[in-house]
Design goal:
Length: 587
């Protein structure tokens, strides 16, 4: 194992530094080679600059060296792997299924499809903005280093520590929740075949079995991440194939099966205009003399707020497209291909998610039947019941097998992306035991970072045992920190490093600042939604602890900022510290 946090420059001392942003002369989505500044460090420690042009072969690694890091990860990924990293990690086909009941509950079909449409547009805009960050700084650690640059010389360190803790929390929680989701689809078969064994998560015996199986699934997820990096392309391909097959079967098979049902399809009027406000619960319950809820005196959750809560279902589906940035240091021509991977994965995911939302709404059974299926406490995954109802027992088993393997590979790719993020953060000493975590194998793989993800995810899964609510609260925190990261990056670019941020090959041109405004407003809004209560009336058992978890993680970030010596932190020092010399930093 070799320790990798810092780097020696090439013998001749040439390093690559991107130019300052000048969006007025750049075109949207440009990807041509950019003019760069080549820094020559003389024997007396001074720096001289000359103009030059970067090549795809050396510019990304030269940039990494100029920042004080040694390129140690294997660089074999191409655009397909970059695209697949984000697209498969998001897996919006599974995401829409997992959140569909929430989408219909808050405001009804009209609120759901509108929120999904707006989410798709704003997420794509956010991804385009993040692509600019990635193109300028295509390194492992991605959002962490982007935040350091966006915060400038005064706030960059604090911003980077915040984003480091937020993002690692989001991704490790995502891995644990995906493992559990995979298990829920497995046990969802029990109730559909009429087995008397309880799969109600209020049953502690079932939770114990659920926990054991989830831990076993996690072990296999981690083991698959130990394969040599050259085999990852097959994992990406298999995951993409399963998602494609899943999507096509839904588009073709589900409508055919629905057409054979006596109730047939929902009307276009119901899908596009129907509002439902009595499913979200009461913000204040009033009981009659018999102890029952008095529907006339109790207050429903406000209608406008229900429309806002619909974004809890939609925004949580299209998030995580920064995964392409996490593996940028392993991607060839990363300043171009990783940036494209972020944008096109978000765009494609938005189209897929919206089309599935409309499809599921048209194939939705009558509301009473829907409620009996989707809110069946006897099943840990109600969508298994939905497929069983529409496709029949045999048909739904085929779909469920595909879903289980799809979620499994979803978790595998999530660990892949997360491990690169953790590695990138650890080599700056931001995390506990950073020296050990930032070590890589001879094959250029951050295996210790993978081990850390396994330990943390396994501990998170243990929260299933005392209460299903405890684990659900942790899962609810998976999306909120990511939205906070995206919003903070946009804020930094708009108000701190407005015209000082480095320029990469991917440029939005005149659209850069307007897109940043949209990114800031949208992600701030969905962050607020994701930390708000979404079960009513609010009690201790259904309280959304995302705000508590995000707050606690933020406190850790503040403590690290105060405790960890500035001398151990590299990030944006290569640009703002006049005493910084990358070729004097030792491994």
């Amino acid at each position: 194992m070799s320790n990798v946090p810092k780097a020696d420059l090439p013998t001749e001392g040439d390093t690559f530094v991107p130019q300052r942003s000048n969006t007025s002369n750049s075109s949207i989505f440009s990807n041509e080679n950019e003019k760069v500044k080549v820094i020559h460090e003389t024997n007396d420690g001074k720096h001289e600059q000359t103009d030059g042009f970067s090549s795809d072969a050396d510019s990304d690694e030269a940039l990494i060296r100029s920042m004080g890091y040694k390129p140690v990860l294997h660089r074999t990924f191409k655009f397909f792997e970059s695209f697949a990293a984000s697209f498969a990690a998001m897996d919006v086909v599974s995401g829409v299924r997992l959140t569909f009941s929430y989408g219909v509950t808050f405001g009804g079909p009209a609120a759901y499809w509108v929120s999904m449409l707006i989410t798709g547009v704003c997420s794509t805009i956010t991804a385009a903005s993040l692509a600019e960050f990635c193109s300028a700084l295509p390194t492992s650690g991605s959002v962490y280093l982007w935040a350091a640059e966006a915060g400038g010389p005064k706030l960059g360190r604090f911003f980077s520590f915040l984003v480091a803790w937020w993002s690692t929390t989001a991704w490790t929680t995502f891995v644990a929740s995906t493992a559990q989701s995979c298990v829920n689809f497995i046990f969802g078969e029990v109730s559909t075949f009429g087995n008397n064994w309880s799969t109600d998560d209020s049953n502690v015996k079932f939770r114990a079995v659920q926990w054991i199986v989830a831990e076993v699934v996690l072990v296999f997820v981690i083991l698959l991440n130990q394969v040599p990096p050259r085999y990852y392309k097959w994992i990406f391909k298999l995951s993409m194939i399963l998602i494609f097959v899943d999507y096509i079967l839904n588009l073709v098979w589900l409508p055919i099966a629905t057409s054979k049902k006596s109730h047939g399809f929902q009307s276009a009027k119901w899908v596009f205009t129907e509002t439902i406000y009595d499913q979200a619960g009461y913000s204040k319950e009033v009981y009659d003399s018999n102890g029952n809820v008095d529907t006339n005196l109790s207050k429903l959750v406000p209608k406008g707020w229900q429309w806002c809560l619909a974004y809890f279902a939609s925004a949580g589906v299209i998030v995580g497209y920064d995964a392409s940035g996490h593996i940028a240091e392993e991607t060839k021509d990363a300043s171009n291909k990783a940036a494209r991977g972020i944008f096109f994965s978000a765009l494609t995911s938005s189209v897929v998610a919206f089309s599935l939302t409309i499809l599921f709404l048209f194939c939705c059974p009558p509301l009473d039947t829907f409620n009996n299926i989707m809110y069946n406490t006897a099943s840990p995954q109600p969508f298994v019941n939905f497929y069983s109802y529409v496709l029949g027992r045999g048909g739904h088993v085929v779909m469920n097998v595909i879903i289980i393997f799809e979620l499994f590979l979803n978790a595998v790719i999530g660990v892949l992306a997360c491990s690169r993020l953790v590695f990138g953060v650890a080599r700056d000493g931001v995390l506990p035991f950073s020296g050990w975590i930032s070590q890589v194998s001879k094959g250029g793989q951050p295996k210790n970072a993978i081990t850390v993800i396994f330990i943390v995810s396994a501990l998170l899964l243990c929260t299933i045992l005392p209460s299903s609510v405890a684990f659900s609260s942790l899962v609810s925190a998976a999306g909120a920190p990511s939205f906070a990261c995206y919003a903070l990056l946009a804020f930094g670019r708009l108000f701190i490093t407005r015209d000082k941020f480095p320029k990469g090959k991917w440029s939005l041109g005149v659209f850069s600042k307007p897109f940043m405004v949209v990114s800031l407003l949208y992600n701030t809004f969905v962050f607020i939604i994701n930390i708000s209560p979404y079960s009513y009336p609010v009690t201790g058992s259904n309280f959304n602890y995302a705000i508590v978890i995000t707050g606690a993680v933020s406190i850790f970030a503040v403590i690290c900022t105060l405790v960890i010596p500035r001398s151990r932190w590299i990030a944006n020092r290569y640009r703002y510290d006049p005493n910084f010399s990358s070729n004097k930093i030792k491994n």
